[in-house]
Design goal:
Blueprint: H1 4-20, H2 49-69, E1 81-91, E2 96-107, E3 110-121, E4 129-134, H3 181-186, E5 190-195, H4 196-199, H5 229-246, E6 255-260, H6 262-273, E7 279-283, H7 301-307, H8 330-335, E8 342-347, H9 355-363, H10 366-371, E9 389-390, E10 393-398, H11 406-420
Parallel strand pairs: 4-5, 4-6, 6-7, 7-8, 8-10
Antiparallel strand pairs: 1-2, 2-3, 3-5, 9-10
Helix pairs in contact: 5-6
The structure holds beta-D-galactopyranuronic acid (GTR).
Beta-D-galactopyranuronic acid binds near residues 261 and 287.
């Protein structure tokens, strides 16, 4: 029998081997050809908005559904029962009104509860609203002690006092540095927060979260081109949007879908699928987000499918180390958001996410925006650090690592102000 130490050694060596294969060297990027954005599968050149919307856009959505993220069941437009847990809490010294809502989904004898936390600037009707998922529960995003804790599964994190896959009081405020809520309110925006684990716990287990509500008799996981976790989270964001649209205080708001990292991948896909999102922001979204997969810098398709086999449709695994065979690349995901403004942000030290590839993913979406006569980034050269671009496709590169900072939010707010004119 192998000793524990020898097993540990084997694992460490395997890890080191896998990591040594990671490429961060621009000069080692092999030449690649991107699938053409403005040419249909049948070879037709796409010259007008009408052709884009009726032919090519539809094709691209289908390709991402079938080959990458997985298709959301048509019946999933499920209406939840709404329970108002808190109607008008006073927050931030009276500057904001806090609402907490539970959306209860039921189907096939199974149920799912999703908590929404909403802050709106006091006395302001229909403010533009940022809608964003968080990683450790709604209570993690600010010090506000009145936020209810979600009972959903969460990965253990000792520093936050999470040791039994259960959110505890220790998680309160732990991610406050990523969510400058008071500044968002002061800028005249609302914020709606959701814990992504409420919609689908982030583990390779399809027996929990939203998926089982749609299984046929005997089914235990989605089919090969059916929804993975990213599609499930995109779905959940749209259900939050249904709620905001049904509420007089936000029914006529503009809605901004924001996400960081895996949740940035989610905001792009969610924004592509649901045209009611007026603006989309993807921060440090990397592989499977905005970064061009064919570059294979930092995280690759194989790496992401190995570490997170539940994020994408099973079918996506066939592109492990076969990026050139993909019928899409990530610039096409951004293009699906056109003509709505989209903002992409990178960080210099976030090399795993391939900041140059993130810029190119944004830049190569330009032809779709140009069909609508919109202004797009002028050059394929990544802008310098802290030199944001606020054309319809917006972008910045900031110093530092994989995170969301005040600088990022300053840009998100300025970009949203410019394009949504609240
Ligand atoms: C990493 C993953 C990235 C990114 C990140 C995150 O481990 O490789 O694709 O999603 O997690 O979500 O923070």
């Amino acid at each position: 029998m192998k000793s524990f130490l020898s097993i540990l050694f084997t694992i460490l060596i395997m890890k080191a081997g896998a990591q040594s294969k990671v490429n961060y060297d621009e000069s080692k990027v092999e030449p690649y050809t991107l699938p053409e954005l403005l040419r249909s599968a049948g070879g037709q050149e796409i010259k007008t908005v009408k052709e884009w919307e009726s032919i090519r856009r539809t094709e691209i959505v289908r390709l991402f559904e079938e080959e990458v993220y997985g298709k959301i069941p048509a019946e999933a437009q499920l209406k939840p029962t709404i329970e108002i847990l808190e109607k008008e809490g006073e927050a931030f010294h009276g500057k904001a009104v806090r609402q907490q809502i539970a959306l209860d989904f039921e189907r096939n004898g199974q149920s799912l509860r999703v908590h929404l936390l909403v802050y709106l600037p006091a006395g302001q009707d229909n403010p533009p609203v940022f809608v964003g998922y968080n990683f450790y529960g709604n209570a993690s995003i600010t010090e506000d002690e009145n936020i209810l804790l979600s009972p959903s599964w969460v990965p253990n994190k000792k520093e936050f006092g999470i040791t039994e896959n259960q959110i505890t009081d220790g998680a309160r405020g732990q991610r406050a540095h990523r969510w400058p809520v008071e500044k968002i309110i002061d800028a005249g925006f609302g914020l709606a927060a959701i814990y992504y684990g409420d919609v689908d716990p982030d583990r390779d287990d399809f027996s929990d979260g939203i998926h089982p509500l749609f299984y046929e008799e005997g089914q235990t996981k989605p089919g090969p081109s059916e929804w993975g976790a990213i599609s499930a989270w995109a779905w959940g964001a749209s259900r939050a949007l249904d709620y905001l649209k049904s509420e007089p205080a936000t029914a006529n708001s503009k809605y901004i879908l924001f996400g960081h990292s895996r949740l940035g991948k989610t905001s792009l896909w969610g924004g592509a699928l649901d045209k009611r999102w007026d603006l989309v922001i993807a921060n440090n979204s990397g592989c499977g987000g905005v970064a061009i997969s064919r570059r294979k810098i930092g995280e690759t398709v194989e790496a992401i499918n190995t570490s997170f086999p539940h994020w994408f449709a099973d079918r996506f695994k066939k592109y492990n180390d076969q990026e050139n065979k993909m019928p899409v690349d990530q610039h096409m995901l951004v293009a699906l958001i056109a003509p709505r403004p989209v903002y992409i942000s990178s960080a210099v030290e976030d090399r795993w996410a391939d900041p140059v590839g993130e810029y190119l993913g944004a830049y190569y979406a330009s032809p779709a925006y140009q069909l609508y006569g919109l202004e797009t980034p002028a050059s394929d050269q990544q802008p310098s650090v802290s030199k944001p671009i606020h054309t319809s496709i917006g972008y910045h590169l900031r110093p530092g690592g994989h995170d969301v900072t005040d600088y990022d939010w300053e840009q998100f707010i300025a970009f949203s102000r410019k394009h949504l004119k609240p």
